[in-house]
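Technical annex, item 7. During the second reporting period the consortium partners agreed on a shared format for inverse folding records so that results from different sites could be compared directly. Each record opens with the tokenized structure and is followed by the designed sequence. A conforming record, contributed by the partner at site C, is shown below for reference.
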């Protein structure tokens, strides 16, 4: 894996090759990843895996035509061929009035914000195995746990560089560390499965393996012998570990490409009161050690902290340059680059601001409801906002968490769900999307 400076030099070299091949403008991305993981099950080593890879992406523009191409062969001859093929493809591509690099006047430049994303302490395979074993031992020690699907520990390193032909060059490295445990409890038809998992940039920010294992064990035991819910309409309370999925649907619908294609349920709702006026959803891409922190976006624009929802209203669409041109707006620094093709959209570390009530107070007036800890399936229509997913969790009876329930479906429309959302005050920061416990009234339950 190249250092950030060497990665930037490699991307600059690819731009030069593209210009010599006839590109009028271009950008190049270098992406490299290396990871090592250890998996144990029932006290025995089950798998050790190490992977490494490097990839370069080249996007070129000739007239109004553009093309994107990538290669994992970084030899000089291969990069010359890559540049030549990309230019030939762009010359044959149909005209696209909206394609192009980001506006030069909006590019950011060094010094970039220091985000502390790179943990210099690399764990050994032996220490990863010891952590995995400790997590599984703690999970299996919880009374009621009857089997294990294993525990794992992993460490990863990534490098990213972006260079454009009109003046941007930047690169950074980041690390990841993770711990997980998955166990089963009970016997026969009443058997249940649950897990605990945590990821961080620095190993020092992870909970202990024993904490992860104990949490997995306690979660599965709490789910044993679930009952069934009756069909009807009732309040639903979302656990923070799955509540972020509701916010992710909002973010997807705010993407400029979805608005430009008229394929978002937020179309014609840009000025609407979507949430209660007290609701704030904010991003902070400069949060130190954040899982979604980055010093610049995928087109070389500055990233910045901002409220995406304020006063219960969205503050604008999330725009890369192509959709911004199509909509007659300005790109917002949310462009992302992945495996290939034109830039997509990504946000920084998100959080739903906490409310005033504790989770217990939030549930106190619920005579009959459900507290959801797991969601299944992909029954969400991004065009209409219709929402339907399988779920499991716990009954709420007279304001108290009661016994476990499973095999039911929740359904509504996301616009209605946003309007009825009330957050509790228990926000914690360790996920890409951080939310407190929150309540949504009036969801339809399909059970018995």
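Designed sequence (site C submission):
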């Amino acid at each position: 894996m190249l250092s950030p400076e060497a990665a930037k030099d490699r991307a600059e070299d690819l731009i030069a090759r593209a210009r010599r091949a006839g590109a009028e403008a271009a950008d190049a991305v270098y992406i490299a990843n290396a990871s090592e993981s250890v998996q144990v099950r029932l006290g025995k080593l089950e798998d050790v895996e190490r992977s490494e890879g490097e990839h370069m992406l080249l996007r070129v523009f000739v007239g109004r035509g553009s093309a994107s191409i990538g290669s994992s062969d970084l030899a000089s001859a291969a990069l010359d061929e890559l540049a030549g093929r990309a230019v030939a493809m762009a010359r044959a591509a149909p005209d696209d009035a909206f394609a192009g690099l980001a506006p030069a006047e909006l590019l950011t430049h060094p010094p970039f914000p220091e985000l502390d994303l790179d943990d210099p302490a690399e764990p050994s395979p032996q220490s990863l195995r010891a952590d995995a074993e400790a997590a599984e031992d703690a999970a299996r020690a919880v009374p009621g746990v009857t089997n294990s699907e294993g525990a794992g520990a992993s460490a990863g390193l990534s490098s990213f560089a972006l260079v454009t032909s009109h003046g941007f060059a930047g690169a950074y490295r980041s690390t990841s560390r993770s711990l997980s445990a998955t166990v089963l409890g009970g016997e026969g038809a009443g058997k249940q499965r649950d897990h605990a998992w945590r990821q961080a940039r620095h190993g020092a920010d992870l909970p202990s393996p024993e904490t992860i294992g104990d949490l997995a064990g306690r979660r599965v035991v709490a789910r044993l012998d679930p009952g069934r819910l009756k069909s009807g309409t009732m309040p639903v309370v979302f656990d923070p570990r799955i509540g972020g999925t509701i916010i992710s649907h909002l973010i997807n619908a705010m993407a400029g490409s979805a608005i430009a294609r008229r394929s978002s349920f937020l179309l014609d709702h840009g000025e609407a009161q979507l949430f209660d006026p007290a609701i704030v959803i904010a991003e902070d891409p400069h949060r130190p050690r954040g899982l979604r922190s980055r010093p610049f976006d995928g087109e070389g624009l500055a990233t910045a902290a901002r409220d995406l929802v304020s006063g219960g209203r969205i503050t604008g669409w999330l725009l890369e340059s192509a959709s911004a041109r199509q909509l007659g707006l300005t790109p917002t620094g949310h462009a992302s680059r992945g495996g290939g093709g034109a830039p997509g959209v990504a946000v920084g570390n998100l959080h739903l601001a906490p409310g005033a009530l504790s989770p217990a107070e939030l549930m106190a007036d619920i005579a009959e409801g459900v507290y959801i800890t797991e969601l299944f399936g992909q029954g969400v229509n991004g065009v209409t906002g219709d929402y339907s997913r399988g779920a499991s969790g716990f009954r709420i009876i007279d304001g108290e968490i009661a016994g476990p329930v499973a095999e039911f479906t929740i359904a509504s429309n996301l616009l209605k769900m946003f309007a009825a959302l009330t957050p509790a005050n228990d926000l914690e920061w360790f996920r890409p999307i951080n939310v407190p416990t929150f309540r949504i009234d009036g969801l339809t339950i399909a059970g018995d």
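The chain has a mean pLDDT of 96. The chain has nine helices and 19 strands. All partners now use this format for quarterly exchanges.
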